[in-house]
Amino acid sequence: MDVMRSVWVLSVVALAVVPGVGRSAEALPTYNYDMHCRAVSGGDFDKDFKCGEAEAAAYAKLQDIWASVAEKRKVECHNVAYDPETGKGSYARHLQCIEKGRDK
């Protein structure tokens, strides 16, 4: 594992242990997006890394808008972004779902 990958993995772990994240319906859910990125990248390191960057950016944007999103939409989009059978989740998918809902 090279240094860049190690730094990226540590940043993923840091996001997962942010106090209060994912503890209530009002809080932003905690997703293991590393599993999601590995699946969509097909083992390609560059794609995996770019996916991780997109997930981190989506997480940051969701943090900024979370309080203004209707609870019903949060739940609907969580169901789109998270697969309870595999544990894979995607902040980018959750954000995309919320943004599409704003057009309605």
TrEMBL record:
Taxonomy, superkingdom: Bacteria
Protein name listed in UniProt: Uncharacterized protein
Provenance organism: Lysobacter enzymogenes
Lineage: Bacteria, Pseudomonadati, Pseudomonadota, Gammaproteobacteria, Lysobacterales
